[in-house]
Amino acid sequence: MSDGKTHDFITISTSPVIGCLAAQMSATVAVTTTIGYLVGGLLLSPDLDVKSRPWRRWGWLRFIWLPYQKLVPHRSWISHTPIVGTLIQLSYLGAIVLLAATLLGIDVWTIVRVVVDRQQDVGEGNPWSVNCFALITGLCLGSWAHLVADTLSSLGKHKKKKRRP
Asked: Does residue 68 belong to any structural domain of this protein?
């Protein structure tokens, strides 16, 4: 498996490619997708199932991932499956935010209804839903880059072991 520095390097160095590909839609979609990609690779990494660099980046908020680490075995299908792993992490994070808001007496559902009802155009005339899709796509791609690096690293190590006498 690749180490944390390698994952960070891959995420950061490939982010311009993601931005250029997303720029085919619009500049706003490119920025949104690239931000999602960086967040997906650096903060919402599949390695949140262990005490890792992405976990440490959460600073004093990293405690919110401790139940996730207890429930999700390292490298399980829950954390290390493209798209599914990211959506599970987003659902978990959403549940934590909802719980915290409820405990603080914040009426989250009213806020959600206002945002969804308005669906204002953002930036260059892109509807809110397009930007949400771009963000989620970026998050999933950031996670996917991590998984590809792990797979390629494992394949390389496996081939080296087979060559030894």
From this structure: no
Q: Is residue 40 part of a domain?
A: yes
pLDDT at 2: 65
Nearest to 46 by CA among 4, 90, 79: 79
Residues 131, 29 contacting (CB under 8 angstroms): yes
Q: Is 162 helix (H, G, I), strand (E, B) or coil?
A: helix
Distances in Å between the Cα of 64 and the Cα atoms of 16, 56, 94, 100, 158 are 31, 12, 11, 11, 35
Residue 126 counted as domain residue: yes
Q: SS in 3 state form for 57-94?
A: HCHHHHHHHHHHHHHCCCCCCCCCCCCHHHHHHHHHHH
State pLDDT tens for residues 40-88: 999 998 889 899 999 999 999 999 999 999 999 887 888 888 899 999 9
